[in-house]
Each structure stands twice: as structure tokens, then as C-alpha cells.
Specification:
Elements (H helix, E strand, L loop, with lengths): L16 H10 L7 H17 L7 E4 L4 H13 L4 E7 L5 H13 L4 E5 L2 H14 L6 H17 L4 E3 L4 H4 L14 H11 L12 H11 L3 E3 L9 H12 L12 H15 L4 H10 L5 H8 L9 H12 L3 H8 L13 H13 L9
Parallel strand pairs: 1-2, 1-4, 2-3, 4-5
Helix pairs in contact: 3-10, 5-8, 11-14
Length: 366
């Protein structure tokens, strides 16, 4: 991590707040060992006991990426859970992600529930984010996935959600100014009121108050990040999934989505000067999966393929129903951030600190 993170700070020894936060607050709550397996088994026993008569005892969102795919493998093969597996199709799936999803679901003999988000709503929200000038363009996909997960759990009366979020590959937080909280409805509604042209009736919504208060304490829906209780190693997981299910890895984390590939490899680095690989590689360094020098060498390579980024731009523009010149015009807009719009940042920050203090969150993230 470097000063391309606008809020980074360094102590008197030159160590950044990301590393200090990881070693002081995150690593002590990480259990990739035998003790973690014991804890995980205890939670899985609770999951089984809480819904022994139901067809499903938990719910899991499958993107086709490494984290969710390995989570599904672990949940079924090692802990014998019966997850309702769902996938959110927001219109940006790659052929590789579709293949990975089909392979693992079929070989585990599971049913797949696919929620297709109304494209006109996704398109309108996506264009509104471009027009807003803010960095977190992937909010249109991420919020749909998050909201659908909770809606499925509520609809099918499932009390446990298996979440692929993990310390092993996500132990370093994304800069808040670039990846702002994805469930701040004040911020989202301000963007919508200014730039959306439709009511977006076919899009799922979930506010922070719904899933942190109503669903958690009234409906008693729990979230279990199983990968934090397992010796989850990125390369070993790729090897195991490839051998068992024919899993095909991606050049970079989150590249199971065409839009995310474009956003994180091209848009964010060239418009806001931030390469998300810094967060991803830093996470692998502090969890001892990668040396710092190897990470630096990887960062010397360009984040996008200059020979094909034009094709990606054409594809994105065509799918959104705009010209490439209009898409490029958004790249030249004045830089804006969540602070330029209505938001509840202070409420989110206080809540995040409280959750982190009691050990319910491992980092203050978006």
C-alpha cells in the first residue's frame, strides 16, 4: 500500500495503518488452524440443529469466483451442510464464471437458484454512477448481490448465511473514499434522484438498518465467514478446485465479472490513480502467502491489456446502450467522492468501530 490510498498514514517507523491494523486487530481474530476447525465444526453443528427438518440449512451466494467456490466446496464436502446455492445475474457474467458455477454445482449434485436482475434497472443505476463522477462504479452489482442474499434468506426462512468474505485474501481494507459503503441508502438515493431516469422497480434494495438490525435481531439471521476458520490458501484452493471441479482461475480477484474487470483493471487506476491489486497483494503478504518483492514485481506489470481494453470499452458501452465517446466522456468528468453527496458516513463509521471492537468485523471496510 502507498499514498495512492488518499487516507493512508504511517507511524514513526514508516509502517502504514493497514499493516498496523492487521497485526493489532485482525490477525488475533483469525483462526486458520486446528482451533479454527473446532470452532467451525461447532457453528456448523448449530446450523444443522437449527434447521434439521428443512431442505436447506444455510444459504450461499455463488459468483463463480475463487472465494465463493471454495466456500461451497468446504461447506458441503468437509462440514456436510445443505446450502441453498443462489447466483445473482446482473448482466456481466464472463463465460469462465458461468462454466465454473455449472461445474461445481453439478459435481456436488446441488440445485442452483438464479436471480436475474432486471437489466433496465441495472443499466440505469450503472449509468447514474458513471454520471456521478464517483469511483465505486461496481456498486450497482455489489448492492444487488448483497440485497438478494438477504432477501433469499428471508424468503426461505433460512437463519444462516455463509459468506465468502475472508481475512486470507481480504485482510487489508479498501480505501473508504474509493470503495464507499455499499448499503448507505442516503448516498444511493441521492445518486438516483440526480441521475437515474427510471424508478428501478426491478432492482433489489437492502439498507444497513434492515440487515444489521431487523434481519439480525428480529429475524435472527446470522452470517458465518467460514473461510476465517480454515487454513485458506489462495493457490492451494485454486489447485484443489481445478483438480476436483475443473475450476478455471482468473488473472485477478473479482474478474469473474466483465464489468469488474474493466472497472478495477482500467477505470480506477487511470481515472483515480488507484490500482486495486495493491489491496489484494497486500492481503496475501500479511497472511504470508506472498513475498513483498513478488508483489512489487507483479505491480510492475500493467493492470490492463492495452491491446484489448478498447474492445472491453466497446462491449461495456454497447451493453449500456451508449457510444464509446460518451463512455470516454465520463472518464474526463471532475473527480467526485461520497462526500460530494448526501451520506451517513458518520453513522456507518461509529457502527463499524463498535462491531470491530467486539470482534464481529475484522476491518473497517466499505
Amino acid at each position: 500500500m502507498d499514498t495512492s490510498d488518499p487516507s493512508i498514514t504511517f507511524d514513526e517507523y514508516g509502517v502504514c495503518d493497514h499493516c498496523n491494523d492487521f497485526y493489532a486487530s485482525v490477525r488475533p481474530r483469525w483462526h486458520p488452524n486446528h482451533y479454527g476447525k473446532i470452532l467451525a465444526k461447532g457453528i456448523c453443528d448449530q446450523i444443522k440443529k437449527s434447521s434439521s427438518k428443512n431442505s436447506f440449512n444455510c444459504i450461499l451466494g455463488l459468483s463463480g469466483g475463487l472465494d465463493s467456490s471454495y466456500l461451497l466446496h468446504l461447506a458441503v464436502k468437509e462440514f456436510g451442510l445443505r446450502p441453498l446455492v443462489f447466483h445473482v445475474d446482473a448482466g456481466w457474467n464472463t463465460d469462465v464464471s458461468t462454466s465454473n458455477i455449472e461445474n461445481i454445482v453439478n459435481k456436488l449434485n446441488l440445485d442452483l437458484y438464479t436471480e436475474v436482475i432486471e437489466w433496465d434497472a441495472v443499466r440505469d443505476f450503472q449509468l447514474a454512477l458513471f454520471k456521478s463522477g464517483t469511483p465505486y462504479l461496481d456498486l450497482a452489482q455489489d448492492h444487488a448481490f448483497f440485497a438478494t442474499m438477504y432477501n433469499f434468506a428471508e424468503r426461505y426462512n433460512i437463519k444462516w448465511i455463509l459468506n465468502g468474505g475472508n481475512i486470507s485474501t481480504e485482510g487489508i481494507r479498501n480505501p473508504k473514499s474509493l470503495y464507499y459503503y455499499g448499503t448507505d441508502m442516503s448516498f444511493i438515493n441521492d445518486i438516483r434522484n440526480r441521475f437515474c431516469t427510471t424508478p428501478m422497480t426491478g432492482y433489489p434494495w437492502s439498507s444497513i438498518y434492515k440487515h444489521k438490525i431487523y434481519l439480525k435481531y428480529i429475524r435472527r439471521i446470522n452470517v458465518f465467514r467460514m473461510l476465517n476458520y480454515h487454513p485458506y490458501n489462495k493457490q492451494l484452493a485454486i489447485n484443489e478446485l481445478s483438480h476436483t471441479y475443473g475450476f478455471k482461475p482468473y488473472p485477478q480477484k473479482h474478474f469473474e465479472s466483465v464489468f469488474t474487470r474493466y472497472f478495477e483493471s482500467y477505470w480506477l487506476p487511470t481515472r483515480f490513480g488507484f490500482d486495486p491489486r495493491r489491496v489484494q497483494l497486500s492481503s496475501l503478504i500479511v497472511t504470508e502467502q506472498l513475498s513483498r518483492q513478488d508483489a512489487i514485481n507483479q505491480l510492475k506489470q500493467p493492470s490492463f491489456d492495452s491491446s484489448s481494453i478498447g474492445l472491453d470499452s466497446e462491449y461495456i458501452a454497447d451493453k449500456l446502450g451508449i457510444s464509446t465517446s460518451e463512455l470516454n466522456s465520463y472518464h474526463k468528468l471532475p473527480l467526485k467522492y461520497y462526500t460530494d453527496y448526501r451520506n451517513e458516513s458518520k453513522v456507518f463509521d461509529v457502527g463499524a468501530r463498535l462491531l470491530k471492537k467486539v470482534g464481529l468485523e475484522y476491518a473497517i471496510k466499505r
